[in-house]
Amino acid sequence: MTHRLKEISCPTLIIVGEQDPGTPVAMAREIHAAKPGSKLVIIPSAAHLSNIEQPEAFTSALLDFLKTAK
After folding, report:
1. Alpha-carbon distance 17 to 5, whole Å?
2. C-alpha to C-alpha distance for 41 and 7, rounded to whole angstroms
3. For 32, which of 21, 40, 53, 59 could close a Cys bridge (C-beta 3.0–4.6 Å)?
4. Measured between alpha carbons, how far is 70 from 67 in angstroms, rounded to an integer?
5. In the chain, how many domains are there?
6. pLDDT at residue 70 above 80?
7. Are 27 and 54 spatial neighbours (Cβ–Cβ below 8 Å)?
């Protein structure tokens, strides 16, 4: 479905844990490349549940994105 990502018109944030085996960084990069204008954030020392494993980094990335999203 990545070919349809360009149809999304709202700001898009892609967050991935650097050690995520289910949705690896390579897949997140593919999504990012297919969605023009998206922002990609890779959370260090996190796997699939980066919001729980690295809550400060996740929340910071989310809040930064929300401040700039229009």
Report:
1. 21
2. 21
3. 40
4. 8
5. 1
6. no
7. no
For 65, other C-beta atoms within 10 Å of its C-beta total 16
45 has pLDDT over 80: yes
**Residue-number span of the structural domain to which 17 is assigned:** 2-68
**Token representation of residue 61:** 């990335």
- From CA 36, how far away is CA 4, in angstroms rounded? 11
Q: What is the maximum span of the chain, computed from C-alpha positions, in angstroms? A: 32
- pTM recorded for the entire structure: 0.90
Is residue 43 classed as helix, strand or coil in its secondary structure? strand
* Residue 24 CB contacts under 8 Å (≥ 6 apart), including other chains: 16
